[in-house]
Amino acid sequence: MRALIAYPTMALMTIVLGVPIVLLSYLGVRIRPDSFLGRAPRVWSRAVLWVSGVKVVVRNAEHIGSPNEARVYVSNHVSWFEIFALACVLPHYRFVAKKELASLPIFGRAAKEVAGIFIDRKNRKAAFDTYLQAAEQIRGGISVAVFPEGTRGRSYALRPFKKGPFVLAIAAQAPVVPVLSWGTREVQGKGQIAINAGTCELTFLEPIPTVGLTYDDRDALLRTVWDRLAAALAEKGVPATGRAVETAA
What we know:
Elements: H1 2-26, H2 40-52, E1 54-59, E2 72-75, H3 81-89, E3 93-98, H4 107-114, E4 116-119, H5 124-139, E5 143-146, H6 164-172, E6 176-182, H7 184-187, E7 198-204, H8 218-234
Parallel strand pairs: 1-7, 2-5, 2-6, 3-4, 3-5
Antiparallel strand pairs: 6-7
Helix pairs in contact: 1-2, 1-4, 2-3, 5-6
């Protein structure tokens, strides 16, 4: 039943917020992050969460940081609703997402302008080049949220991480903040159409500094983040059964 309300709301909010963003982009007008349209992803997400009956609970909010301190937020990924929840609480951010989303009518162009950094996951070199370009935005004060597992999983068990997000964090010399998302699978798991009311819990773990790290430290950084998220999941009763390293970008 909630899906019958949520999906039309997504479409309506995409038109109401996306069309002005697209029109301004064609006119060459820069949209400031602190303007109403710059905050469109937050408005869009809050509307969808509200009609879906989903409450967001934030733990360890002090690790989010201030809007003036750019960070790389790294989260596990089992549902689209992690994106919506993070969009409601992160300051001045962009999401790293698969390039296929950029081709969606209105949504793709609007997201590219105010919320998205799109990567070609099938092309390792292109993905790394995009991450390095994103590092420039981080140095300019824009935080980035990324799901290093690459795609949604069907269970909370942590899967291997791709290396690109950690190359990004090192290139930007920005702190990495691991984020444990919990409860989203019960709201809407992978492959499900139905949406259930519930609670999305976001636990921000202690930031991991990258100042002084180099490209050669990317694997060690990846393992540190993976281990911390795996330990946090273990406290929820989810054992670490996989491996940390993924060879693809």
